[in-house]
Amino acid sequence: MLGKNLPLSYFVHDAQICNSPFLGMPALGRTGDIHVDTIGLAALSMAIILVAAVLITPRLTSENAGGTGQNLLELYYQFIADLTEGQMGHAFKTFFPLVAAIFIFVLISNFLGVGPWKIFESFPWWPHLGHSPGHIEPFEIASPTTDFNVTFALATVSILTYLGSGFWMHGIKYLKLYLNPIEWLDLLIRPSTLALRLMLVITADELLRGAAISMAPVLIPTGVMGFELFIGVIQAFVFALLTTIYIGMTIAHH
After folding, report:
1. pLDDT at 1 over 70
2. I need a surface site. Which of 102, 134, 181, 184 has the fewest CB within 10 A?
3. Where does the pLDDT of residue 67 fall: very low under 50, low under 70, confident under 90, or very high at 90 and above?
4. Residue of 118, 121, 109 lying closest to 203 (CA atoms)
């Protein structure tokens, strides 16, 4: 959950390594503050996507309806194609891979936090965070999208693509748009709202589940987890949709 990430310093006890500036830049924090859980869960999300692709791709066929995997893949392709083409017109194929990747990564990342992970907290080998005896708590597995580092990185990719598409479509004359100071403010607001919306909504879902487990450990959390899955889909769609809208507005700008 928010503010309870598992730092590298939990595993590495070399003060020289942990206290060194991250990438040699003190403003980015210390190496020991790297969120190992976020990196691991984000890598797991990508691994799930790649494994699914590897399993489905050899079974693709054009001779018949195909299997369940192909049907799901075709539905997903058509969904993203309709989303991007509706906002970008004929240029949608250029940005289709990015929007599709953003949607599926955010979706799987959101889903990873939904599970009976509290079971592991009862094991003695499970990581615990805190320094003073009264403030030591078991580490909680959460969606990587509850980490601002992940959501801000996704938003940065979205906004850089948004800017790049403007120059790709309109050339150097697109630079004239940013003679208006309001446009510079827009470059700060858009990535911030993209990143914060996703992080805060998924974090709120995590907190809601935690409260439900505390009140009724068996029945209520099941419904809450179902609601979380629904919200996870909605947030993945919203992030992909806004990215598509931003790029579409840039391509259409004259």
Report:
1. no
2. 134
3. confident
4. 109
Q: Which residue has the higher pLDDT, 99 or 166?
A: 99
Q: Which two tokens stand for residue 62?
A: 């054009």
Element (H, E) at 137: strand 137-138
Structure tokens at 161: 């693509």
State residue 70's pLDDT score.
Answer: 85
- Residues 203 and 2: beta-carbon distance below 8 Å: yes
- Give me the residue label for tokens 């979380």: 228
Best CA proximity match to 235, nearest among 210, 206, 200: 200
The DSSP secondary-structure symbol of 113 reads T
pLDDT at 214 over 80: no
Report which of 103, 189, 188, 204 is spatially closest to residue 146, judged by C-alpha positions. Answer: 204
Q: CA-CA distance, 67 to 81, in Å (whole number)? A: 21
* Token pair of 44 as six digits: 């797991």
Tokens representing residue 190 in the block: 């858009």
* Residue 26 clears pLDDT 90, i.e. is over it: no
| C-alpha triplet 180, 154, 99: angle, nearest 5° | 90
Residue 237 to residue 106: CA distance in whole angstroms = 9
Helices (H), 89-170: 92-112, 148-170
For 87, 165, 177, the CA distances from 171, given in Å and listed in that order, are 20, 9, 12
